[in-house]
Prior knowledge:
The chain is about 40% helix and about 25% strand. The protein is of the alpha+beta class and about 240 residues long. It has a domain at about 5-95 and about 180-220: Beta Polymerase, domain 2. The strands form two sheets. Strands 1, 2, 3, 4, 5, 6, 7 and 10 form an eight-stranded mixed sheet that branches. The longest helix has 17 residues, at about 5-20.
Amino acid sequence: MKEDIAIDALREVKEVFDKHGIEFWLDCGTLLGAVRDEKIIPWDGDIDIGSWDTQISKIYAASQGLRDRGFKVSVRDWEGRTFILTENCGIDVYLYRLIDNAATMKWLINKKMMVGQILDYLHRVTSEQRRVVVGSNMPVSVTKILYKIVNTLSPHLRRRLADVIWLLYEKTGCVIHLSIPDHYFNKLSKIRFYGMEFKVPAETEEYLVYRYGENWKIPNRDYVHYKDDGAIVKESL
Length: 237
C-alpha cells in the first residue's frame, strides 16, 4: 500500500464520513502506525477504521458520496464486519456490536488462502451488481466478463448462486470471535495524523497493549491478525 495513495483515500473517506455524521476512530494497524510511527506502517495492507454497528445505515449512504468522487466502492456486512474497498486502497471499517459491556466482532478467516481468495472473489461478483471488484489479483477484463455473465441470471438465481459460494467459503474457513472492553471506545480523544484530526480511543496506549501486547512499540512484520490479536477470545471451525 503506497503511502500517498493511502493518505488521499483516508482523507476522502474522512470528508465523506464527517459530512454524513458518522462517528469513527482510527483502529488496529492504522492506529498503531499513527501512535508509534506517526505514519502509516509501510507493510500494512489497508487502512483500519472503527465504528459501531449502529452506524451502518449512514455508512451505506456515505458510500454513494465516495462513488460520486470517483471511487469504486463495495460495502459488505460479514459476520459483523463491514468494510469498504476502493480502487486505490483497501479501507476496513470494523463495526463493533455492544454486548454485555464488550465491543464484539467476528472475522471469517479462510486459512486455505488460494481457495479462499477465489471463493471470496466469486462471491463478490455474484452478490454485487455493476461494481468492479477491487482488492483482488484478477484482471479487470476477467471481472467485467464475469459480471456480464452473472447479470444474465435472474435475481433469485443470482442470490442462490452467491449463497452457495458463501457456504463453500464458510466450510473452508473459520470464525474468529473478538471481544474488547467497551470503555476503550466509549471515551475518545483526538490526534493529528497527516495534518488531519482523527478520533482515537482515549486510553490509547492501554488499548494498543490490549490488541498488540506489551511490545507494541517494537515493529513486527510477522504479526498475523487472526492469530496474534489480543482481542481474540475463541475460534470456531
